[in-house]
Amino acid sequence: MTVRPSTDNPVGQLRMVIEERAGRAIARQQYFQGALRVLRPHYLDDTGQVSYTIVNPGGGYLGGDVYALDIEVGGGSSATMTSQSATKVYKTPDEPAYQHSTFRLGPDAVLEYVPDQLIAYRDAHYIQDTVVEMDPSASFLSTEIVTPGWAPDGTLFKYDQLQLRQEVRMHGRPVIVDNLIVRPDDESAPVRSMLFMDGRTHLGSLLAVDARIDAELVAELREKIADALEHIGTMTPANKPESSKPEALFGITLVDGPGLAVRVLGTKTEQIAAALYAVVNDLRARWRDQGPIHLRKY
After folding, report:
1. Which phi and psi (to 5°) does residue 281 adopt?
2. 107 assigned to some structural domain
3. 113 in any annotated domain
4. 3-state helix, strand, coil in the chain (%, to 5)
5. 164: exposed, middle or buried (C-beta count within 10 Å: 0-12, 13-18, 19+)?
6. In a domain, 248, yes or no
7. pLDDT tens-digit profile of 180-238?
8. In 171-274, at which residue ranges do the beta strands (DSSP E only) sit?
9. Beta strand pairing call for 37-38 and 50-55
10. CA 20 to 30 Å from 194, out of 5, 48, 170, 239?
């Protein structure tokens, strides 16, 4: 088991408390220091949902770097959090780069955490722990896109290890644990094997937790994802033999919580994003009558 670094002295720290006032979500408290910043808020529609962009002025994560995020969304408030650009993890020869995020959601609160892609470069080891403390009436959604970074010899998967772990708690009790680990050099499951990524290079993950999620919704979203991938030409055309390998594969699963989890394998960031955003946009329209998410970035 990998020992987690201490978050007592992070190189980047962000704390925010978001609450609703006069029909709009605002930051009642906001603190950041070191290698993390947050840009001014945007309101992308007339629902009062606030959108914040997290910035890392340092440009990337290095060995031994520790980042800490603590975001609280008060009762009845709605927020979207994203990143300004891709999270880049560079060589970590001695210690992994580490990010610990805590999200707290009050009654009927909404949080969508949709950062840009995570790029791991040669000899990178990255650990990301996310803990979600939420009221059963709240709604939480997070996405992650993982892409391999460039290596001098032109090959992919030169990073050492990625671990993305999410734990969702209600009333202090864990209800969902999603633990994703990628070890490219693990001889028991190399990334090029049929049992792992089957030659695909990009990975997408989505977790949604909401009391309205059920098996019928999961079945409908499965069709939405398939349509999105077919629309951008990533599924096997009908005139090709059944044995032809599709460029993108996906799975969606109902989990206790209640919630749902999505995994997507592909060869381009655009493929993964199309599949994940098909789910994000459907849930926004279905539950809150919101349009497709369109994040402003500068």
Report:
1. -70, -35
2. yes
3. yes
4. 10, 45, 45
5. buried
6. yes
7. 998 876 555 555 544 456 778 899 999 999 999 999 999 999 999 999 999 876 544 44
8. 173-182, 202-209, 249-255, 259-266
9. antiparallel
10. 239
Nearest alpha-carbon partner for 90 in 149, 34, 5: 149
Domain count, the chain: 1
Which tokens sit at 60? 């990337």
CA 132/CA 111 separation, integer angstroms: 10
Tokens of 76: 């009845």
Q: What is the span of the domain harbouring residue 73?
A: 12-236+244-288
Query: pLDDT band at residue 243, thresholds of 50, 70 and 90?
Result: very low
**Listed residue (132, 64, 127) closest to 99, CA to CA:** 127
- Has residue 184 been placed in a domain? yes
Q: CA dihedral defined by 179, 102, 207, 5, rounded to 10 degrees? A: -20
How far is residue 18's CA from residue 27's CA, in Å, rounded to a whole number?
A: 4
β-pairing verdict for 110-113 and 78-83: parallel
